[in-house]
Automatic annotation (TrEMBL), chains A, B, C:
Gene3D superfamilies: Hotdog Thioesterase. InterPro entries: HotDog_dom_sf, MC_hydratase, MCH/BMMD, Thiol_ester_hydratase_Rv0216. PANTHER family: BETA-METHYLMALYL-COA DEHYDRATASE (PTHR43664:SF1), MONOAMINE OXIDASE-RELATED (PTHR43664). This is MaoC family dehydratase. CDD domains: FkbR2.
Length: 356, 356, 356
């Protein structure tokens, strides 16, 4: 019987809502050294063409030592670390805010992630609650690579357990310009439009402008599984068809971040010079995606940010929308009842640097 | 309305036949640093076993600094760059000629591609035309890695637009020996048959000899999509099942280069010592392939090329044929009417170095 | 006719039972330099989270120069080299024994494999026989990375050929402690439980303890094909649906090693600190797996090994069982008739280091 007890205790079943308390700090397992192999896989999985992440020579022309790995590869690796502690029993990944990219993540760098619980709110059902965490990924020198807040709906272990005091953090709707961390040596004064793929620069984009990114890509099971494992994200719903075929959707669910990366890569066509992401202002996976779905995307320019001391670059705040199995032109963002159109799967708000 | 105009102008829809003119030079976007990660993916996608590209030690035994990436990985990367400018509106990729491999492409090298329009011919329908381009990929030192001609059938924007003067370039049927670029330090005097996998060397092959490569490999959607994205090739027909399921074939079409790499990898069995490709003399994708197809291949020795000043190596001109879903032994190249047998998908003519 | 003869002789059809003789030594083709790209693919294919193989910094904290590639990636590469000489005509891969891991395999190292025939036994049918080989993979300095014995059932070319003398090697049931090769500089005195993912160390595990690893993963065709090609393993049954759909199982068969790696990766949940494999004591692929199958795993602690001179680490001998499409809790290892339960696919016995 001793042995049976050991079985229960060694295997992790993930935290439930009751296991979180305000201010709790979690150091996540498995630091991760990223490599040019990870970037190659990222390219194979999404087909990004932004020159900064594709060419060491181009990166050097902007003042960096070489190409960093893609911003969203960094995001997914940081996110992946948090899953087994934060969202293994999550029902839904509800939103993102206050995401700030710090120093670039280079091949050879090792990233370690920690999270802090910054909010808790039990749902009225008494069966679930919302957990807010700020997660931070640092490199081997302790420099912040990415910090962001996300909130997830997590199951309670027991509906009878007492409710925690409700604390909903006061999150900024938009990351402040003063919180941006511009890579020290980055300069766009020698930015080469031809190599980057477009002559449209910061001045050419207008608030309210909508850019439909033309192409669509169909997702295969092997692709999203390989991607999600690359990030060491172990959420069960992405991998186990034996149980998921009997589950909520009758099939495996695709990691929401996979759709972010597909949409960002599609956005190259029309936003070629949107090279380096500064901030994730917000984001929601508004509907699930499954293998076989075809993803399309459009962008809307929400804001133009000028840095008075920089005449080589500015920033754009962009709303990136992904739609499935439907033409972007014929898909409204919202239905008449004010809810997302049923084909919209992602509503993502980020800020990106662009040469002036 | 200003904003609406911006939408149209920022997104690229690719060039149409009218957009090309003779002598036009195009610098393609997104330089690409290749890495050992790309080579690992290439291995996972095709399973090549040629020792030169698999082992740094073997490469050093031939006088090189380390293993270059596979010749066809270099080809696909150069090709991929050209797609968004040349063949986004292509109906068919008709042929290749005058392909010359230059300096080896090593992990860490950055490749940049340019193309020049060298021929134009409108089709009698008035709806399409053939564009001939010479594309050249150079490394970060400006050294040519690969130069080749291809011609594609491209849609006209409007059947009413005027026809250009017909110019069909005079292309060599076979790359001349004097145009070969032998890697400077390459020597096969210490070539190890055992490590390479065969004792058959240049002297053992005969003009007219046909080598059936035994194995067959079935293609999966996830594989060809990952391959094609790795090369940053964005041709729509390979990725979008939402539209392609309503299109010409009712499904996604596989990038022709994927079949070249599969056939070349299959050719290891029987041509183990065919280590370094010198030239692509010609090639045609004679029928489309789709996920689920199983590819087989055979080679025919067309020519033996002796370099008088070299007693360590010679070259073979090889016709590499890929067939789908049919035994090579029972598949003739041509039907009785003189047209390709319906199961033949690739007819490719290349020249390769082999130890003497 | 000369030309036709050449066709037959150049293409390898693999060895048949008659082609092996006791003491025969085979140097396998295609040395292989492993890279961080291979490790990235390994991560994408299996999702391992053991810190030693994920983080260069963690590896350095244990005294190594950087992260080696995963132990089973080394195993698969060594195994893959042997296929075209040993098991191309195999009906079944029957077992493993006496597997000893030597020096760690680092990105940049080149592995070369040789095998020696150590046993032969014709089956009573006269149509097949069992071949026992010891295969050894060495790095570019000639240091052993892995040595192991496997035995396979191979077809005879002709049932009429004479039987060899039966020699069944006397294999150890368990690799002896004195045969272990502990990496010279490896120390676990500074082992960080938090980064590794668990506070359970060697002292916390008990002989007889069974750990059910909770999660299940569904295998896709593209995944096992990419994995098997990454290892340059060319066994036909894994790749050719054109013939396999007419074959024994009506579909492609998954490389048994793919299941070993999936099970080992699943075992992270409950055995997070089982960082470095010392030995493969035995193993059998007791039933075939196919795309669409979902793999689960459990471990049973068979033995605890204490190294008197080391107070930083010990070893555990572990029986790793993989099951398909069935809950581990409800799947017995053996049926009432003493045969493996029909859902059990792997019975694998290995020894692994763990911090004390």
């Amino acid at each position: 019987m001793d042995v049976q007890k050991a079985i229960v205790s060694k295997t992790k079943l993930g935290n439930f809502f009751e296991d979180f308390c305000l201010g709790m700090e979690i150091a996540h397992a498995t630091p991760r050294t990223v490599s040019s192999g990870d970037q190659a896989l990222y390219t194979a999985l999404y087909g990004p063409r932004f020159a900064l992440f594709s060419s060491d020579e181009f990166a050097r022309s902007l003042g960096l030592e070489r190409s960093p790995v893609d911003d969203f590869l960094a995001f997914h690796v940081v996110f992946g670390k948090t899953v087994s502690d934060i969202s293994l029993n999550a029902i839904a990944n509800l939103g993102y805010a206050e995401g700030i990219f710090g120093v670039p993540l280079y091949p050879g760098d090792t990233i370690t992630t920690t999270s802090k619980v910054i909010g808790l709110k039990e749902n009225s059902s008494g069966k679930t609650g919302v957990v807010y965490v700020r997660s931070t990924g640092c490199n081997q020198r302790g420099e912040e690579v990415l910090s962001y807040v996300r909130w997830v709906m997590v199951r309670k272990r027991s509906s009878g357990s007492p409710s925690p005091k409700t604390i909903v953090p006061d999150l900024k709707k938009v990351v402040s310009v003063e919180d941006f961390i511009l890579p020290g040596k980055l300069t766009m004064s020698g930015f080469d439009n031809t190599l980057a793929g477009s002559s449209f620069r910061w001045d050419d984009y207008h608030v309210g402008e909508k850019i439909v990114h033309v192409d669509g890509v169909t997702i295969e099971e092997a692709e999203h599984q390989m991607a999600t494992r690359l990030y060491q994200n172990t959420a069960k719903v992405h991998f186990n068809n034996h149980t998921e075929s009997q589950g909520r959707f009758g099939k495996r669910l695709i990691y929401g971040g996979h759709v972010i990366s597909l949409a960002r890569s599609l956005s190259f066509n029309g936003m070629e010079n949107a090279v380096k992401i500064m901030a994730i202002n917000g984001g929601a996976h508004v509907a699930p995606t499954f293998a076989g779905d075809t993803i399309y995307a459009w962008s809307e320019i929400l804001e133009k940010i000028d840095f008075p001391e920089r005449n080589d670059l500015g920033a754009l705040r962009v709303r990136l929308i992904a739609v499935k199995n439907n033409n972007c032109e014929s898909t409204p963002l919202m239905d008449e009842d004010g809810r997302y159109h049923s084909d919209v799967v992602l509503d993502f708000d980020y800020t990106v640097l662009m040469p002036k």
